[in-house]
Write a structure and sequence with these properties.
With 111 residues, the protein is an alpha/beta fold. 34% of the residues lie in helices and 34% in strands. It has a five-stranded mixed β-sheet with strand order 1-2-3-4-5, with helices on both faces. A hairpin with a 2-residue loop joins strand 1 and strand 2. InterPro entries: Anti-sigma_ant (IPR003658), STAS_dom (IPR002645), STAS_dom_sf (IPR036513).
Length: 111
């Protein structure tokens, strides 16, 4: 399966809607799309994971890279609406402690 990436800017916030699978095949495309969004001071990037049906460790690596980029450039990253199995991957790796993940779809109006 492929990964669909839809990026829209609303109210100075980059909204990224993902659907499909994030794995070794699709992660490079995701990284190419997300990292530039984080490389602007004061940028806010909200990634909606609601339609992500599968993610492996390469997907986690993309989000860790994006988080490092936000620290370097002074931007913000928020992940919203992960499905339970995707959220569990962040949880068991301890990434819920360092990446802002909101399971409430009302974050900034959701997507």
């Amino acid at each position: 399966m492929n990964l669909n990436i839809d990026i829209q800017e609303r109210e100075h916030i980059q909204h990224v809607s993902l659907s499909g699978e994030i794995d070794a095949y699709t992660a490079p495309k995701l990284k190419e799309s997300i990292l530039p969004l984080t490389q602007s001071s004061e940028a806010e990037v909200v990634v909606d994971l609601q339609s992500v049906t599968y993610m492996d460790s390469t997907g986690l690596g993309v989000f860790i890279s994006a988080l490092k980029s936000t620290k370097e450039y002074g931007s913000q990253l928020t992940l919203i609406n992960p499905q339970e199995r995707v959220y569990r991957l962040f949880k068991i790796t301890g990434l819920t402690e360092i990446i802002n993940i909101d399971t409430d779809s009302t974050v900034r109006g959701g997507l």
